[in-house]
Amino acid sequence: MLEKYAPILIFLIVAGALSVILLALGFTFGRGRKDAEKLAPYECGFEAFEDSRMRFDVRYYLVAILFILFDLEIAFLFPWAVALKEIGAPGFWAMMIFLGILVVGFFYEWKKGALDWECAIWESKASSKKASSPPRSTRSSSGRRPARCGR
Question: Looking at the whole model, is its pTM more than 0.70?
């Protein structure tokens, strides 16, 4: 029974040994010179311009949660598609109910405006005390909220 697990054990031993060897080679032959430029914070191709502990808009977290939710849907679809012949019609209809619930949730979020970036930008800028007008990309000709944002 344990001989079934021998390839997995061999794989783990080889992977661990290779990791240790590559780390040792990197420390041995790598240049460890640290200057001010290497130690400077670097963010997306330019210097950091604000404090890293700044507050994020709650919409950022909402979009992240929505992404995870719909990404997990795909994680459930792959094993379901592989096992579809074995689970038959009940498994098929169970997945259709699951997908239906997700589609209803998607349309709910769409109607609530959670996926509309321009309105979110407009509302955050309009409610901010620093900004006196919405960004140019969402500003209507009269300076009011764009009609597609509703309310």
Answer: no
Domain assignment present for 95: yes
* CATH number of the structural domain spanning residue 103: 1.20.58.1610
Please state, rounded to an integer, the average pLDDT across all residues of the chain.
77
How far from 96 is each of 26, 62, 75, 91, CA to CA, in Å?
51, 25, 15, 9
Domain that holds residue 106: 2-115
Measured distance CA(122)–CA(137) in Å, rounded: 9
The 8 Å CB, 24+ separation contacts for 95-103 are: 99/73, 102/69, 102/70, 102/73
Q: What percentage of the chain has pLDDT greater than the value 70?
A: 69
Answer yes or no: are the C-beta atoms of 113 and 149 closer than 8 Å.
yes
* Beta-sheet strands, E only, within the chain: 42-43, 46-47
Q: What's the CA gap between 12 and 57, in Å, rounded?
A: 43
Phi and psi based region of residue 127 (left: phi greater than 0; alpha: psi -120 to 50; beta: remaining): alpha
**Number of other CB atoms surrounding residue 121 within 10 Å:** 17
